[in-house]
Design a protein that fits this description.
Strand order of the largest sheet: 22-23-26-25-24-27-28
Largest sheet: 7 strands, antiparallel
Strand content: over 45%
CATH topology of the largest domain: Elongation Factor Tu (Ef-tu), domain 3
Number of domains: 3
Distance between the termini: 22 Å
CATH class of the largest domain: Mainly Beta
Helix content: 10-25%
Number of strands: 28
Radius of gyration: 44 Å
Structural class: alpha+beta
Shape: rod-shaped
């Protein structure tokens, strides 16, 4: 297909060289900050009792490891303390015994009582104090075994509690998760351990670095997305669970040949590019495309590195290509009746402005016979035609303008050009109801 340089300039066709580049795309998605589930703790007791004093008494309170939570009065725990003290007293009394089995049995009783206290979460320091004072504690202080923030509190002063009952839920917020949904076509680029950047509306000028921790093994049927879990260090607790987060991942995709996105015409069934062959010639060529990389698209087959492709107004090239293909199969019918051959008339057409614009324009046709004499009292019409462009879901367009006789073989009229682009124009001259001449030409409207 040949397109002269002037027409290329009018319709905005440019050429770009297909390049082999390092393919990299940025995956952008949104997510929500979540608790790190591996850093959640349930605080409960292993013995029945009553809470007397409550030291951590509101949700959101920061708790240190070893910090007192509450005091607990438990008859079972108090009995075990007494058993421990009795075992200590017995051991002390038979230390001088000559019976080795008796001494061993006393030591075993002390160890068993101490282990029971330890299993009921008494700290080693509390057991040591009990052994030193030899006096049981009616209300025992229970301390936190973890560090974090209280996210749920069921403990109440004076409440009766059962073994295993949840009293606090504590979350360590030094590390948090961000869970985001990634479209399934982008999932091959996401790998566990891949780096990610998060931005939040609360801190618009800051970027937080993290990594892909886990990829869920299923896809959401409704949204066609796969949930991905990212892990981020949370110094100062600035990333708060529940916040919305913008996630970015730079994903390398190897090396490949790319062309601009607007160089590819997508009809739904085929993808076509116009390869520049030189001297104004363009060759339409089917291609197989890969990943879309911003303003570029990867070409898997059909275009090689170094070839020039048309971009900028390829839909005009597509329209012209289809029109010329249809004209190749068109065979003009011989004239019938007494009408004179079209070539006997000299027909000239011009527009104001020149070239015409989209919208209203003035058209003037000058009609002369072979001897140069103006043809008067004829009917002159101008037909405009633009071929269908399936890639843009545009049907073929036609329009006709009737010109009035201005005398001296000159015919003028106002016509509407439906849109900018290349139009195939036919000027038809009839007289006394018979066609006496016609001329075909091309106009490119701005």
């Amino acid at each position: 297909m040949l397109i002269d340089p002037r027409r290329q300039q009018l319709i905005g066709v440019r050429t770009v060289v297909a390049e082999r580049v390092e393919l990299a795309t940025t995956i952008r998605t949104v997510g929500v900050v979540r608790y790190d589930e591996t850093r959640l703790a349930d605080v409960n007791v292993k013995v029945e009792g009553w809470i007397r004093d409550l030291f951590v008494d509101y949700t959101g309170q920061q708790v240190r490891k070893g910090q007192p939570l509450f005091t607990l009065y438990s008859p079972d725990l108090l009995n075990t303390e007494n058993e421990y003290l009795l075992a200590l007293k017995t051991r002390d009394q038979i230390q001088q015994s000559q019976i080795a089995d008796a001494r061993q049995r006393a030591d075993e009783l002390v160890a068993a009582a101490r282990q029971r206290l330890s299993l009921w979460d008494l700290a080693p320091e509390q057991i040591a104090t009990l052994e030193e004072k030899r006096t049981p504690e009616t209300a025992v202080i229970l301390r936190s075994l973890v560090e974090g923030v209280v996210i749920d509190k069921q403990a109440l002063k004076g409440a009766h509690i059962m073994a295993g009952q949840t009293l606090y839920k504590i979350a360590d917020l030094s590390v948090v998760w961000v869970e985001a949904d990634v479209y399934e076509q982008e999932m091959p680029l996401v790998k566990v351990g891949g780096r990610a950047i998060v931005t939040l509306d609360a801190y618009p000028n800051e970027r937080f670095a993290g990594r892909v921790l886990y990829i869920y093994p299923y896809v959401d049927e409704k949204t066609r997305t796969n949930k991905v879990r990212y892990e981020f260090a949370n110094r100062g607790g600035r990333l708060k669970p529940g916040m919305f987060a913008n996630v970015e991942m730079a994903a390398p995709a190897g090396v490949g040949v790319t062309v601009p996105t607007d160089a590819v015409l997508d009809s739904g069934k085929d993808r076509v590019v116009f390869v520049a062959k030189g001297d104004g010639y363009f060759e339409p060529r089917r291609v197989k495309i890969g990943r879309r990389l911003g303003a570029a698209v990867q070409v898997l087959d059909g275009v090689t590195e170094g070839e020039s492709v048309a971009t900028g107004a390829t839909f005009f090239l597509d329209s012209e290509s289809q029109l010329r293909a249809s004209l190749q199969g068109y065979e003009p019918q011989p004239p019938t009746g007494t009408a004179a051959p079209a070539k006997q008339l000299d027909i000239a057409l011009r527009s104001v402005p020149d070239p015409p614009k989209s919208g209203e324009n003035q058209f003037e046709a000058i009609v002369k016979d072979p001897s140069g004499t103006p043809v008067a009292d004829a009917d002159v019409s101008v037909q405009f035609f633009m071929a269908a462009m399936p890639t843009m879901n545009m049907p073929a367009m036609r329009n006709e303008v009737k010109l009035s006789n201005a005398g001296g073989g000159v015919y003028r009229g106002t016509g509407h050009v439906m849109m900018a682009g290349r139009w195939d124009v036919t000027v038809t001259v009839t007289k006394n109801g018979q066609r006496v001449g016609a001329k075909q030409l091309t106009l490119v409207a701005r």
